[in-house]
Amino acid sequence: MKTAIVTDSTSYIPKELREQLNIHMIPLSVVMNGESYQEEFDLTSELFYEEVKNSGKLPSTSQPPIGQFVELFEQLAKDYDAVISILLSSGISGTYQSAVSASNMVDNVEVVVYDSEISCMVQGFYVLEAAKLAQMGEDPTSIVRHLDEMRETSKAYFMVDDLSHLQRGGRLSSAQAIIGSLLQVKPLLHFENKVIVPFEKIRTRKKAMKRIVELLEKDVEKGIPLQASIIHANRLEEAQAWKGELEEKYPTVEFSISYFGPVIGTHLGEGSMGLGWMKRNH
Predict the structure, then answer these.
(1) Phi, psi (rounded to 5 degrees) for 202
(2) What is the pTM of this model?
């Protein structure tokens, strides 16, 4: 059975890897200074942070139109028996719902829309695994079952320099609970029930990152082979240094570096740093 894999741009999978594994991607957009830009196509991450810094205004984001999904699904129907579309959490974007609506408008191909319940490279881990399984000829049911198993070991924590982005964008649940004590606090956040919620309040950036490592260590000690991604918002050097430290400390974990691109960066702000991991299957 031939199964196509579709994701959205917030999985931030490098173009070469998408091409190599035949992954199809639908972009979300950011609107800056009245202009709309499709991330990963019209706008690089570096340029985005530079523009935000220069303009001082926070951009807004928009999900892909349903028509874009319909068009892609119909195009894929010519060559594939099925499509699995793995998208960012339905709790922070309407992208998932758009894809579900689009799937109901397409008759000549089976479309499965999968809610990753997260975003960025942790979402990317699901996409890459699905693409490898699809290449091996696995059917959609077994691929989805595999993704559900991966979810059992999936974790991601991130800290932001400034919570106002998330609060303003309505992406942070129960923000009021921590807004009162934000001075000097670097809140550690995570996804819970598909939305971003505070995990712990921590005093400094250094301590927040140390706490993330402690959480990783708990899973490393279970002896499960893990893949992990350091995710940064325009802090590549810091991410590289952190990767070096972590690789030395946890040689059994496969570390990579990814980034918070324009859409997610709009909501988290520059300087954010995260670490996500799950079981490694190969």
Answers:
(1) -130, 145
(2) 0.93
